[in-house]
Task: inverse folding
């Protein structure tokens, strides 16, 4: 059984337009599979559809999500620690989780990746807040990056990944360092920082490399801290986030850990492009939580 859940509005409606072509390719390429395609009309409906498909899955069954980072987030939460293998057909604007794990950006190549059937087993971030637990595939953001992400989600007119860069400049004009209280593998720290990113994969914001060396199959979290810095310095660092070069600056600290507790003043959390609540919160690595189709064999 291969269940495809589609957010037809992703990518400005692109997902809905190319769905017939994608469906034909999957039927032709998976002749031995029963293909079930469903369109979601809302985020909540998509969550219910993916969860139901994953919970009913037997070994060898697939749950395939077609859309942007939000659909990937729903898909990995549904499939985590089940018999279902996740397939991702990226049709949104950022597609950061798919990009980081080796899912091709072109629709035909992404479909071919599912048909070829190479499965990789990956870790996930487990984020625990007062409201419960959720898995995050990419990065748990909590500072300047979280504010940019939320503001980008709120704008009506979007220009793909460029939107994130434009909003980043706007938010910088009034952003001030934030007070953090962290507990990293049991060690307590208090600091002022521009952001603390807890990473499973190392890409967010439409291609920004917050942790280029992050390996989603090593059983550890990668933590990037940008300590207190002037707006001018952060402005100078912004372009090099797309290459990872900002990590060379003395204000940047990189850690590896199994668990990070985040608390502080005026903080909220974003992950996989979704707002996930406030602090205190704990991020832990769950090794081998997800089976996913990918071209990457590392």
Result:
């Amino acid at each position: 059984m291969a269940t495809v859940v589609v957010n037809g509005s992703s990518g400005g409606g692109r997902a809905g337009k190319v769905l017939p072509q994608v469906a034909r390719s999957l039927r032709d390429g998976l002749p031995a599979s029963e293909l079930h395609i469903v369109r979601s009309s809302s985020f909540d409906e998509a969550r219910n559809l993916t969860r139901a498909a994953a919970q009913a899955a037997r070994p060898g069954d697939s749950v395939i999500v077609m859309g942007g980072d939000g659909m990937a987030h729903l898909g990995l939460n549904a499939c985590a620690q089940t018999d279902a293998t996740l397939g991702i057909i990226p049709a949104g604007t950022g597609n950061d989780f798919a990009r980081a794990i080796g899912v091709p950006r072109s629709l035909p190549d992404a479909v071919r990746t599912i048909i070829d059937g190479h499965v990789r087993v990956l870790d996930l971030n487990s984020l625990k807040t007062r409201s419960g637990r959720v898995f995050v595939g990419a990065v748990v953001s909590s500072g300047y990056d979280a504010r940019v992400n939320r503001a980008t989600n709120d704008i009506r007119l979007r220009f793909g990944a460029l939107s994130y860069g434009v909003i980043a400049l706007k938010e910088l004009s009034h952003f001030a360092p934030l007070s953090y209280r962290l507990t990293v593998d049991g060690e307590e720290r208090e600091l002022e920082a521009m952001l603390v990113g807890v990473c499973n994969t190392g890409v967010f914001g439409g291609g920004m490399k917050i942790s280029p060396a992050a390996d989603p199959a090593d059983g550890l979290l990668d933590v990037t801290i940008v300590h207190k810095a002037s707006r001018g310095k952060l402005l100078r660092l912004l372009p090099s986030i797309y290459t990872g070069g900002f990590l060379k600056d003395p204000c940047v600290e990189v850690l590896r850990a199994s668990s990070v507790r985040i608390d502080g003043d005026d903080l909220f959390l974003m992950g996989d492009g979704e707002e996930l609540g406030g602090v205190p919160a704990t991020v832990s690595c769950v090794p081998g939580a997800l089976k996913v189709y990918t071209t990457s064999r590392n």
